Amino acid sequence: MKTLLITSVLLFLFSFNSFSQKQKVKVKNDMVTLDGVEMFKMVSTNYPDAYTFYNLEDEKLAIFNANYYRDPQQITAGNPEGRVAYFDITFLNDSLDKCEIRIVGFKKHLAELIINENFFLEGKLNDPAIKQFCAINGFKFSKQRENNSGTTIIINN
């Protein structure tokens, strides 16, 4: 009984501590702030799900272009067309690093991802974080898209 009480108290303290340290990300008028401090600009381009990221000096840092395809293996009751949505990302560093990720929801979620991954530090691209992120994520969506766009061959005997 005593162990259960101590465990409960410790869990409460840890959960309270984690809630109090949560960072507050806001996106308003293309400006992304973290705990009230301006971090970077996130501008929607002509395409509704594409974003261009700028530092506070209006230098382009990255472009996230939305792409879609249909995958018969992804058909569910909630996704009857099997639609797969992903961002094709280009970081505007010296090596023009590229990769792909699943579209992560709303604009705020994408801003949180960028902050959590530390893509931008002091208004510049964080090359080690970007290279690691691209190495981990790669191009699985375009590869899967290529595999699904092939011609179906029917063999009749």
Description of the molecule:
With 157 residues, this protein is an alpha+beta fold. The chain has 4 helices and 9 strands; from the N terminus they run H-E-E-E-E-E-E-E-H-E-E-H-H. A 7-stranded antiparallel sheet has the order 1-2-3-4-5-6-7. A two-stranded antiparallel ribbon has the order 8-9. The longest helix has 19 residues, at 2-20. It is globular and about 45 Å long. It starts with a helix and ends in a 9-residue tail after the last helix. The relative contact order is 0.13. Residues 3-20 have low confidence and may be disordered.
Count of alpha and pi helical runs:
4
- What distance lies between the first and last C-alpha atoms, to the nearest angstrom? 72 Å
What percentage of residues falls in helices of 4 or more residues? 25-40%
Widest sheet: strand order? Answer: 1-2-3-4-5-6-7
Shape: globular
User: If you average the pLDDT, what whole number results?
Assistant: 84
Which class of secondary structure composition applies to the elements? alpha+beta
The biggest beta sheet is recorded as: 7 strands, antiparallel
> Taking Cα atoms only, what radius of gyration do you get, to the nearest Å?
21 Å
Number of strands: 9
Segments where pLDDT lies below 50 for 5+ residues?
Answer: 3-20
SSE sequence, one letter per element: HEEEEEEEHEEHH
Proportion in β-strands: 25-35%
